[in-house]
């Protein structure tokens, strides 16, 4: 990725938007299905996020950077009574998920394909039951650390849109980013790390389907950490 430092705000949700050409079925899904699932941020957000969905839901969760959508597809099937908002700027990942969601008949999903910060600023206060951020870009070079999505400003955004008791889940195979996240959470008064033992962050989340990126990390000898924080 070219270094466009300064072209986007610090902490913005950077992503590689274009990749390989889409397959015909993916392209059709992007043209026909994505418009029916996409959020329109030019319109005011509803006071009740449940009103975004065509089916009744009793809670709404957000996944930021869902990649190929393995986890989002899995969770939206496990919890049909929950609404899910997924953010992914990479067109290939979005196309893969839109096709899979269409084939699975998912009605409890809404999507956004741009900067997650704009979405977070659009959402109403205390409307989310959870936020998932799995394997975000670690931006390993020190001069790029300000691009990491976990930062003080974004944790303020999380705190505003999450209701008390909501969970922020963060998974990464990069030890420095894990420690970075724990440091930032540790100084934020609205979040609490709920781990009671090492197994609480070494073991995957309940019902975790795994992802292709995670499998690659394990093959290359990197050990994932699964952190869970509660909004006080």
UniProtKB/TrEMBL annotation:
Is tRNA-binding one of the keywords UniProt gives this record? no
Give the record's family classification: Belongs to the class I-like SAM-binding methyltransferase superfamily. TrmB family.
Q: What would you give as a GO molecular function for this chain, any one?
A: tRNA (guanine(46)-N7)-methyltransferase activity
Its EC number is: 2.1.1.33
Substrates-to-products reaction catalysed: guanosine(46) in tRNA + S-adenosyl-L-methionine = N(7)-methylguanosine(46) in tRNA + S-adenosyl-L-homocysteine
Q: Does the keyword S-adenosyl-L-methionine apply?
A: yes
Q: Which EC class is this protein assigned?
A: transferase
Q: What is this protein called?
A: tRNA (guanine-N(7)-)-methyltransferase
Q: Which UniProt keywords apply?
A: Methyltransferase, S-adenosyl-L-methionine, Transferase, tRNA processing
Which residues are recorded as binding substrate? 141, 173, 211-214
Please name the InterPro entries in this protein's record. Answer: SAM-dependent_MTases_sf, tRNA_(Gua-N-7)_MeTrfase_Trmb, tRNA_methyltr_TrmB_bact
Q: Quick one: which residues bind S-adenosyl-L-methionine?
A: 63, 88, 115, 137
Q: What HAMAP family does the record tag this protein with?
A: tRNA_methyltr_TrmB (MF_01057)
- Please give the function described in this protein's UniProt entry: Catalyzes the formation of N(7)-methylguanine at position 46 (m7G46) in tRNA.
User: What organism is recorded for this protein?
Assistant: Aquibium pacificus
Q: Where is this region: Disordered?
A: 1-21
Q: Where is the signal peptide?
A: none
Top-rank taxon: Bacteria
Pathway(s) per entry: tRNA modification; N(7)-methylguanine-tRNA biosynthesis
